[in-house]
Write a structure and sequence with these properties.
heterodimer, A: alpha+beta, PmbA/TldD fold, 6-stranded antiparallel β-sheet, 5-stranded mixed β-barrel, 9 helices, globular, B: alpha+beta, 7-stranded mixed β-sheet, 10 helices, about 20% helix
Amino acid sequence: MPSSAVKSEMNEQATDRLKNIASDILLEAKKQGADQVETSVSIGQGLSVNVRLGEVETIEHHRDQGVGVTVYQGKKKGFASSTKLDSSAIKEMVSAACAIAQYAEDDPFAGLPEKESLASYFPDLSLYHPWDVSAEQAIEIAVTCEDAARSYDKKITNSEGASIQTFEGTRVLANSLGFNYGYPASRHSLSCSVIGGSEGDMQRDYWYTVARKASDMEAAAMVGEKAAERTVKRLGAKAISTRKCPVMFAAEVSGGFIGHFISAIRGGNLYRKSSFLVDSLGEQVFPTFVNIHEQPLLAQAMGSAAYDGEGVATSPRHIVEAGVVQGYVLGSYSARKLGMKSTANAGGVHNLTVEPGDLSFQQMLKEMNTGLLVTELIGQGVNTMTGDYSRGAAGYWVENGVIQFAVEEVTIAGNLKDMFKAIVAVGNDVDLRGNTRTGSILVSEMTLAGS
Amino acid sequence: MSDLIQQAESLILQPVGLGINDIDQVMGGLLSNQIDQADVYFQTSRSESWVLEDGIVKDGSYNIEQGVGLRAVSGEKTGFAYSEELALPNLLEAAKSVKAIASKGQSGIIKAKSYTNAPSLYAPLDPLDTMSREEKVRLLKRIDQETRQIDSRIDQVIVSLIGVYDVILVATEDGSLSADIRPLVRMNVSVIVEENGRREQGGSGGGARQGYEYFLEEDRAMGYAREAVRLALVNLEAVDAPAGNMTVVLGPGWPGILLHEAIGHGLEGDFNRKGSSAFSGRLGQKVASPLCTIVDDGTLENRRGSLSIDDEGVQSQCTTLIENGVLKGYMQDKMNARLMGQSPTGNGRRESYAHLPMPRMTNTYMLAGDSDPAEILASVENGLYAANFAGGQVDITSGKFVFSASEAYLIKNGKITVPVKGATIIGNGPDVLTKVSMVGNDLALDSGVGTCGKEGQSVPVGVGQPTLKIDGLTVGGTHA
């Protein structure tokens, strides 16, 4: 049988080695005529195993490395990246970045972030918990997970398998303002996807668990059972007729719904005026009970970071308070374009948290009374410029607060501006797995198109 | 040995001090008598992008990628490792961990070397070098200036230019060695227009496996710009889209994304071997109206979705998926073909050396029918004409697929009337083609913009179709 343990190599020496490479890159870029430089260097390794129908399907050994450099010559910018870390590759990469900067044009807003905004305090966020798991052990866990799914119900007829992925990596960020810092981080996940069938109908659903620390993952059997339960519930799904009705986004899809808001207050969309929330700072976008926070410094959370992609120090903040927008999502470039300060969001938001309400999932269904509970969305039909929203949905029809039957092949549509205002309640059934932590969200009315 | 193999050898192996004999040694490390299939995939690629916004070329990037992927397959089990370090000891170490997928057995026998010589469907050029940096910057600035003159309502113009030079060398367990040099260029123009406080956008682009001069020929670059402006201005007039089930007429070309989502993914070999596709076990059955014949064709010269050989060294071909409504074949990579007792179809593709190959589409399109497009529209009393799409997605198990219209109009009494806002259209893959009641004589392929995502891997693809009339799809507007 296969054998290969993931042996942790993300020690202090590894971080120091990357910091040295980063310093070399800064020097090389200065030598080649750059006025300002930023570089990131990363290495990573991991193991993924997939099992299907009780047998190993794939064992993948991952080993990655990469480096990127941004140079500024005056107000002209160039970027290059490479998968090679040796000194000749680095020279080649730096000169490619400088060549681009030479041909780019002056952009008055280009440049590194302001020096005083850079992080100087680096709390231990407990993000690195290597998992010394062998391929055999990983296979065993995945088989346990898939077995639990396959034996959950006779209607589970096939499987797409269960998989374990474990990854650890170190990334260093350095710039010519004196920043040079890096830290290791880990990520482990287990997922399972099974297929159910009855009377010619075939449905698939999945579940997953993810954590920085392997012992924080949900138990393998529980992940399998949830995947199976979700699949079985979808059997017999049908389309329903076109109507206007309340829509409740289950917690696992609510993060995406809130993601559309974040996208609309992102700097790039604001300065291009390609957002329906241009000039929304201080405006009432949500009902007064909606509060959205960013919590970058949570220990062991998936989105935690003491600084953003440019080294700017993060700190906890309110993005929405009592329904009113308190801040945008900006990196230093878009901040300068807007005449504002960076919000330490170069590269994205860190642990977005929608403050949970009082209602449980069941109480949320009761609150909706009659309408569509959405558990899956497909397609890209969201227009950030206009707020127009139209996506394919699957879920359950609910009457008098009780799930009646599974629904598929319908779309839900509206305008995000109206949908945000029409939020009636946020549940306390918070999904903690992703970078956005939110309970289910109930919207009073949308257009459902169906048969 | 072919020129391509020699070129790939000098571009990938020689700089790191490796020779073709070293590949034999690595392959020897992968093989045992229980290994059915193995490959060593070397890749080096360079890519660049240039972006113009606010009237200035403000961003450019350059990327160098190089690595090797090693795979061994025993029955249905796959072992895989990759490395950015191409030194021989790293490769032998990786081979050892990959081979562990099979129970221990005798070492396999290394077969005599053979060289694959497939005809090249594109010139083995480096597109990055087909234009100087000055010319690239000048081209972007010219497009920006000329675009802004098209209409006074234009507020923003973003133009991007992307080039990729990809060299691969793949050795397989049967002793064959193949190489490919794959150029790829892409250009995109997007505009934002504003009128009376209402802002809308439009975008258009194209590309091919050629040099950048492609965009200067036939006035293509400004063609994209004019199309982007036209779409944005149409959106300024758009009213709420209807909601409900109705007759939908799809325009020719890019709307072929319908076939890619509704049918294509469901006919990929892996899903069918595992029985997870809504099309599993349906070969020989009627799955579409007799008007429909659909192929996946990787052999079209210079097209974005084409490949001279796939990433397993198998020569590309034109595979008939559906013929006159009957399901004829699946798209296969080597592993799924072997396990299903079929032949590989040249659809074994991977995003890079760091990813495992799987069955993927190339250029998927429906052949032309007999109907005049005008006659198709005239036959619809009430419905939707969808001329352009943004993107799509499918659940291959339930068969449900969506695609998002980015340019659509209401049809009233056989005539195209007002434009409607972008709406998602949803349907059931196994049903949708049975509802095709008219097929136009105007087959068109897309302009070379498609990227397909599957299990986290992106590859360039093409789609196409003639005008199609579908009797009943659900349109997801807000106007119930």
